[in-house]
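Re: [ENG-882] Designed sequences occasionally contain unexpected residues at chain ends

Forwarding the minimal case from QA. C-alpha cells:
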C-alpha cells in the first residue's frame, strides 16, 4: 500500500469511529509512512488533481467571494512552486509567509510544502522588531508578503529573497507565476521527520517560542482536528469567518 492509501485509510478509520471515542483511542495507530512523505504532494495533490469540487471560499465584508476548486488550488500551487524554485526556494529553506486570509496564502503554503521548504507563518500584525527576530531565529531565506506591507522589512536585515503579492519596488511579484505553463511538481524527497513548519507561539508571557512541525506531525494534526470538530468530506468549515471545505 502506498503512502497516499495509508493516509487515506487512517482518515477513513477516524471518520468511521467519530462517535466511538473509546474505540478510537484503543484502535487508532498512525501508519508507518516509510522513508519518504510530503503531505502536499502525497496527499493534497493525490485527492485534488482533477477534483472540481469547491475547496476554498473567501467572503469579503462587501459580500464578494473568491472561490477555488481543489483542482485549481493544486495547479496554481504547482505553478507557484516552479516560480519560487526559480528564485531559490528549495528543500529545507525556510520561507517567512506574512499574508492575510487570501487566495495567495493558501497557494503559497501548498507551493512551499511541495518544494520541501519550511513554512514560517507570521501574523500580519508583526512589526519590524518582531520580523527581525523571526528572520534571525528561523534563518529565513525568503519572505512573502503583500505589497502594502513590504515597508515593514526596510529595517529587517539579512540575506533573503523578497517576494510580494502585487508590485513593489525591489520585490518580485509572485502573481507572475500564473503566466507559467502548468506541470506537476516532482516529489522533493522529504522524509517523514523532515521539518515542514516553524511556528512562533504568541509570546503572551515571554519571548515567543519556535515550535517545529514535521512532515508527520503536521498531517497528524490535520486528522486529529478533523476528528475533534467532526468534519467530513463535503462539509463546509467556517474558519476565521471564512468558509473552507474538507475533501
Amino acid at each position: 500500500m502506498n503512502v497516499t492509501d495509508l493516509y487515506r485509510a487512517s482518515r477513513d478509520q477516524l471518520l468511521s469511529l467519530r462517535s466511538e471515542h473509546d474505540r478510537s483511542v484503543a484502535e487508532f495507530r498512525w501508519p508507518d509512512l516509510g522513508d519518504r512523505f510530503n503531505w502536499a504532494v502525497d496527499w493534497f495533490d493525490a485527492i485534488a488533481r482533477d477534483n472540481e469540487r469547491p475547496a476554498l471560499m473567501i467572503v469579503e465584508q462587501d459580500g464578494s467571494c473568491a472561490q477555488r476548486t481543489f483542482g485549481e488550488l493544486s495547479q496554481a500551487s504547482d505553478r507557484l512552486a516552479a516560480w519560487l524554485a526559480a528564485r531559490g526556494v528549495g528543500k529545507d529553506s525556510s520561507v517567512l509567509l506574512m499574508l492575510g486570509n487570501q487566495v495567495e496564502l493558501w497557494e503559497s503554503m501548498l507551493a512551499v510544502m511541495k518544494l520541501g521548504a519550511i513554512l514560517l507563518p507570521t501574523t500580519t500584525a508583526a512589526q519590524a522588531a518582531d520580523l527581525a527576530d523571526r528572520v534571525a531565529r528561523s534563518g529565513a531565506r525568503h519572505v512573502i508578503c503583500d505589497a502594502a506591507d513590504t515597508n515593514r522589512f526596510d529595517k529587517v536585515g539579512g540575506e533573503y529573497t523578497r517576494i510580494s503579492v502585487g508590485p513593489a519596488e525591489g520585490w518580485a511579484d509572485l502573481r507572475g507565476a500564473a503566466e507559467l505553463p502548468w506541470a506537476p511538481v516532482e516529489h522533493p524527497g522529504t522524509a517523514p521527520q523532515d521539518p515542514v513548519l516553524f511556528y512562533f507561539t504568541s509570546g503572551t508571557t515571554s519571548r515567543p517560542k519556535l515550535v517545529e512541525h514535521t512532515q508527520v506531525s503536521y498531517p497528524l494534526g490535520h486528522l486529529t482536528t478533523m476528528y475533534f470538530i467532526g468534519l467530513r468530506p463535503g462539509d463546509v468549515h467556517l474558519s476565521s469567518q471564512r468558509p473552507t471545505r474538507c475533501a
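QA comment: On inspection the terminal residues look reasonable. The chain has one domain: 3-245. Proposing we downgrade this to a documentation issue.
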